[in-house]
Amino acid sequence: MTELCPVSVGQKVPDFTMETYEPETGAFGKVSLAQVMERKRWVVLVFYPANFTFVCPTELADLAERQAELKELGCEVVSVSTDTKYAHYSWRYQEKLLEQVNYIMAADPTGAVAKLFGIYDFQSGLALRGTFIINPEGMLVSSEIHYYSVGRDANELMRKIRGFQYVYAHPDEVCPAKWQPGQRTLTPGQKLIGKVHEGLR
Fold first, then answer.
1. 16-58: per-residue pLDDT in tens?
2. How many CA atoms lie within 13 A of 132 on its CB side?
3. Helix H or strand E segment including 85
4. Rg over CA atoms, the chain
5. 175 pLDDT exceeds 70?
6. CATH architecture for residues 17-169
7. Residue 147, by phi and psi: left (phi above 0), alpha (psi -120 to 50) or beta?
8. Exposure pattern of 48-86 as b/e (b: 16+ CB <10 Å)?
9. Looking at residues 158-176, what average pLDDT do you find?
10. Of the candidates 179, 158, 162, 181, the residue with the CA atom closest to the CA atom of residue 63
11. What is the DSSP letter of 66?
12. Which helix (H) or strand (E) segment is 27 a member of?
């Protein structure tokens, strides 16, 4: 992969390919963005700093608790670090917190994909905690980046995915803060300017 400027929210994500360890089958493989786009699925990329660390397994276990829901929502979940696929294989079986992880574990040892998303730490050679949601058209719709010391919450990820899927299906509407499925959305227009309070009632 040639080095590119980091992709921004609202832009189409260039294709990339990574080697993988796939716990569901127990096999090594490869994943490419183009391959997932052909199936018209959403992509959830979850970068983390390194295997055999401390916060990382708690995050991956938290995500694993939601993997059935994510699959039902048409999402392809891919966890990514700069470790190799062999290290993923070893860590998956040694760390008990990862026993339920069945989503793809991708290897980015050169940091090429982390650089594409602007989260490669050149001082450490690791990726920051980055979560990226890509819609079925290949557009980056959400970017969340944490420094090393604070883990993420899969509940908020689920809320964001459902929100982006709702507006993908209803492009004339927007989801307000803390929106959950079934709650009122807003339809932007001149009549709503300065009257959002009324629009939420």
1. 999 999 999 999 999 999 999 999 999 999 999 999 999 999 9
2. 28
3. helix 85-94
4. 18
5. yes
6. 3-Layer(aba) Sandwich (3.40)
7. beta
8. bbbbeeebbbebbbbbbebbeebeeeebbbbbbbbbebe
9. 97
10. 158
11. T
12. strand 27-32
State the catalytic residue, choosing from 5, 56, 75, 175: 56
3-state secondary structure at position 1: coil
Q: Which amino acid is at 149?
A: S
- Site of tokens 């970068």: 47
**Domain locations in the chain?**
17-169, 172-201
Alpha-carbon span 1 to 78, nearest angstrom: 19
pLDDT tens-digit series, residues 115-128: 999 999 999 999 99
Q: Which residues of 5-35 are buried (b: 16+ CB within 10 A; e: fewer)?
A: eebeeeeebeebebbbbbbeeeeeeebebee
In sequence order, the 6+-apart residues with CB closer than 8 A to the CB of 122 are none
| pLDDT value of residue 1 | 40
How would you classify the pairing of strands 27-32 and 120-121?
Answer: unpaired
CA atoms within 13 Å, Cβ hemisphere of 5: 4
Does the active-site annotation cover 175? no
